[in-house]
Amino acid sequence: QVQLVESGGGSVQAGGSLRLSCAASEYTTCMGWFRQAPGKEREGVAAIDAGGTTRYTDSVKGRFTISRVNAKNTLYLQMNSLKPEDTAMYYCAADAVGCYSPSWSTRGNFDYWGQGTQVTVSS
Question: What does the pLDDT look like over 60-84, one tens digit per residue?
Answer without folding.
Answer: 999 999 999 999 999 999 999 999 9
